[in-house]
Please model this.
Amino acid sequence: MRSKLKIILVACLAAQAAASSEIRIAKSCYEWRKVIGDAIASAINTAKAAGLALDNPKPDIQELAEHLFGNEASIAAAKVRLNKIGAIIFAPPDTVSAERVLWEDKKEMKKEDIVVFCDLSRFERDANGEVFWDNQNAQWFGRKSYAEWNSNRENTEAETVSEIDGDNGSLVGASIYVFPWYIKQMQARKNMEGFTAVLNNDPKAIAMIAEVVKGIGRNWNYYKDKGMASGHPMARMDIVHAVLDGTMLHELSHTWAAGISEDVDGARSYGWGAAVEMKNPKNADSLSLFAYAVKVVQSTRFEVDIEGDIADYSTGIFVRKSKLEKRRDDEIDRMIREILDARWRS
Model:
């Protein structure tokens, strides 16, 4: 899980595979199926590309891997986890009938299933009102988490709960619950000129890297002395990484299909500085940050250093359009400050 990402993940992990793991989108996410689908596809593809980049790594990729994972054994372990995420099967909703492909929210999950949900209709309150149970899948929400969901406030990022089926001792599928207010924010960002919610390989998304880095530069003095929950300074890569697919990759890494990553030191596990300090291939944010740093390096002429800085951003390959209005800069700056504030508070 990641702080300030407004997603709850209930990861219920199988002891061994019965079939290839597939991720599905539930019908409760119908309104947002496109942006969620784009994020899932991008997360899987980004993990796959990062794993491939470690086959015969170029010097800059090798250096990134050493920054985040340390020795060759740890780098090899990270590669295995990234390859597992890259092997998860996903059929985007727009490639087949949405009614056929979207998951019934109250359907029982198999061990290998991973499902993204956008409401809590599967859960019923227990007799004491303390726990909300999905009886079919032996999963639960505590009262505090349920209240945070319904408050619709930006006060929770992510929470991971592992459940065991009490009837037979087996573990069930993994469920990712997306907070409605968060997905609405991501949808708004997707529609905003010069910004995106998903850092996939389309030209707009790649161009966003340059726009965001420039925007970070304009706003950095106010935040440069602020730290993250981990106690480390905020890095520019932490901002570029703050996209919906970055969240998805982090959360997918927690699932059994991906090798069960952890938030190794709780809130102190989040962000670039924590990843560099820990050098732990089991840490979820380390895997996700590495994958997106590889994307920055491979998609642009920018470089990412050990501090998570993105070098040469003032002279990168992307040139600001001459007719770009100041309003666009203001919108990007506002979005970046929201991201920076969220990271600082987390």
Observations:
- Residues 46 and 295 are 7 Å apart (CA to CA).
- The chain has twelve helices and ten strands.
- The chain has two domains: 7-59+88-181, 183-345.
